[in-house]
């Protein structure tokens, strides 16, 4: 069931360094994201998770190192190749980042209008399919973002991220701001879309429930580098931050909710 270890990585980061003035954020980050896996990126506040995501999608440039996405050198792309690569991933930021002056349907149409030459009626049909795909009622299509709940806005943002049938889905704190039931429903939606569409998912999160529910592997940003493993392997790590994170009260609650066995490993 799990993604094959032998498949070439969809995202490959090597020797990444990031510096903002005197502040060093990353000092030798290495990462392989495998095709078809859900990788969760966690770490303390301000450790550089969002910066890493932005670097992978080309919104920020690292100080040194290499980033390959879908076999392309993401730091040295022509404008044409960049546009082409951007059409192969979907991006969902925390608040959905919808255009407030456009309806849900119009928001979903934007990437189709920007990246394809499909006729308007086909774009309309595709956008309506995406509305259904993320579990929004058909009448949500005509609403403006301000008329939606936080959960609906996230779903609309997800529909837009899926507009071009991407190979990779990037999510930054997808469940932030949702109540536990809404967050669990959103996790379930991402998990089922990932399976049915064969997506590779790269997700920055603070949500331990999300890690247990849908992540195949977890990358922990710690001491300016990444430690990558499965939940089971990370439960055995001795680094104090990782121990606190997975064995602390929230970690125990997540284990209890998802039927894991962290406590038995603590003794
Ligand atoms: N464009 C930028 N210019 C200068 N400093 C930046 C920039 N973007 C981020 N930083 C700094 O880099 C550090 C890492 O920021 P980042 O947003 O990646 O943290 P994070 O791990 O996502 O944190 P959180 O979990 O709190 O969202 C922070 O100290 C932040 O202030």
From TrEMBL:
**Superkingdom of source:** Bacteria
Pfam families xref list: ABC_tran
* Segments forming domain ABC transporter: 11-248
Q: Which PROSITE patterns match?
A: ABC_TRANSPORTER_1 (PS00211), ABC_TRANSPORTER_2 (PS50893)
The record's keywords, sorted A to Z, are:
ATP-binding, Nucleotide-binding, Transport
Which is one GO molecular function term here?
ATP binding
Q: What is this protein called?
A: ABC transporter ATP-binding protein
Q: Which organism's genome codes for this protein?
A: Aerophototrophica crusticola
């Amino acid at each position: 069931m799990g993604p094959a270890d032998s498949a070439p990585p969809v995202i490959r980061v090597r020797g990444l360094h990031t510096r903002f003035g005197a502040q060093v954020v990353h000092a030798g980050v290495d990462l392989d994201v495998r095709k078809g896996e859900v990788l969760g990126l966690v770490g303390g506040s301000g450790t550089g998770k969002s910066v890493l995501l932005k670097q992978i999608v080309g919104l920020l440039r690292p100080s040194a190192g290499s980033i390959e996405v879908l076999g392309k050198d993401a730091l040295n792309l022509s404008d044409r190749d960049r546009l082409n690569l951007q059409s192969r991933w979907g991006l969902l930021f925390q608040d959905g980042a919808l255009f407030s002056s456009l309806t849900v349907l119009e928001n979903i149409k934007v990437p189709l209008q920007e990246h394809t030459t499909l006729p308007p009626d086909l774009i309309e049909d595709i956008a309506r399919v995406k509305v259904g795909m993320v579990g929004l009622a058909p009448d949500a299509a005509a609403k403006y973002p301000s008329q939606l709940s936080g959960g609906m806005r996230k779903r609309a943002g997800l529909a837009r991220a899926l507009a071009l049938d991407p190979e990779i889905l990037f999510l930054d704190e997808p469940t932030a701001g949702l109540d536990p039931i809404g967050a669990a429903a959103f996790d379930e939606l991402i998990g089922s879309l990932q399976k049915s569409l064969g997506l590779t998912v790269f997700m920055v999160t603070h949500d331990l429930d999300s890690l247990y529910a849908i992540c195949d592997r977890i990358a922990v940003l710690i001491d300016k580098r990444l430690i990558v493993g499965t939940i089971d392997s990370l439960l055995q790590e001795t680094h104090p931050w990782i121990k606190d994170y997975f064995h602390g009260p929230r970690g125990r609650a997540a284990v209890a909710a998802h039927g894991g066995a962290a406590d038995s490993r603590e003794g």
